[in-house]
């Protein structure tokens, strides 16, 4: 039995039948991580004491016949950008290395409260999550499980790799410009970014309310259950939604794609996409057509407005770190340093003017989505490339602009829309490609249902990457 690859429902059934115990599962996952880690570097640290203590509590629940909680005895990991009480959290930067928080972030405490077992902290492979490449000064390269030395994508890269390599079913990620969806795309797993505020985010991000908390998993059902456990209002996040979480997992198969009106964009009217990626995505779009959806190819008018905006706001988000340069510049990512120096010339009036333009841009996205149930696009423009680069060799080069191959994700961070990256195939070189599914704001269930429909039509959870062993 390959315990690390079992889903939440499978583990629960085995616990109830007493064919497996939470202690056995926690130890098996920890052992698997120790075995695979030298090949992939997805973990900042293991937390065996936390995992086994939680496992013993969950084991007692099943032995006594008590009603198990939603995630009773289920292993999970937490990204290194998220506060974990008593567990070192480095935020992927030398500046804060060695920090030990005295409190859990809300998403962490809720996973504990749901009965989960934290087995470790995953790499946030970029300083404060600034880039879409899985390399950080303090942790080195997090390797794509489909090819050593290749990019595993963005700041939740460790979570995506952990999901692909069988480190248990549930992995928490954060998404400020694509950092759940891009790792899912590069590692061939499922990544779901809920509506902004669905899962409370604390400490509050300085990213213009564009950062979302969500799951990376191999199965849509697991993502639905993890979202359900983390979701709901929280007083620490004044943007969190008042609505309690729905039974997302219980309603996954309650909707058909037949008759759904779905928009499909190849390039948002401006984005460059490698042909090998575009071909795989187009085949996945046809799967929705085969399920009875009405597909309309579109070129949104708002699409070409995004690049100028993101190249202003992304550097501006991190510009406050410029005070760290005199002491820490030699220990910081050179691209990160170049980006915040670029933003040092921005003025307050310029910022407010650009902010008005961004509000108008977001309004156009929401008006566009009123005409469709979903929007489909590539999750990213390229397949995995060497992680010691910011851009693939055959793309234009820049000292900090990695966004050129990631134009499909950030619009829906600003709009707060639910969006997911679904595994949809492989390039001729055997590298995964993700299809992005975007829904109307608040329609988290709809995006999960559309994801489950494609998963049923073209399953992916059985696939195993070479570096997973």
Provide a descriptive summary of the structure in words:
With 469 residues, this protein is α/β, with parallel strands linked by helices. The chain has a single domain (3-305, 349-468), classed as Alpha-Beta Complex (Amidase signature (AS) enzymes), CATH 3.90.1300.10. The protein has helices at 8-16, 22-40, 48-64, 106-113, 157-164, 181-187, 220-230, 275-290, 306-318, 325-328, 334-343, 348-369, 411-414, 444-457, and strands at 43-46, 75-79, 117-122, 135-136, 140-141, 143-144, 147-151, 170-175, 190-193, 212-217, 261-264, 294-297, 374-378, 419-426, 432-439. The strands form three sheets. An eleven-stranded mixed β-sheet has the order 1-3-2-8-10-9-14-15-13-11-12, with helices on both faces. Strands 4-5 form a two-stranded antiparallel ribbon. A hairpin with a 2-residue loop joins strand 6 and strand 7. Helix 9 (306-318) packs across helix 12. The longest helix is centred in the last third of the chain and has 22 residues, at 348-369. The mean pLDDT is 96.
What can be said about this structure in brief?
With 469 residues, this protein is an alpha/beta fold. The protein has 14 helices and 15 strands.
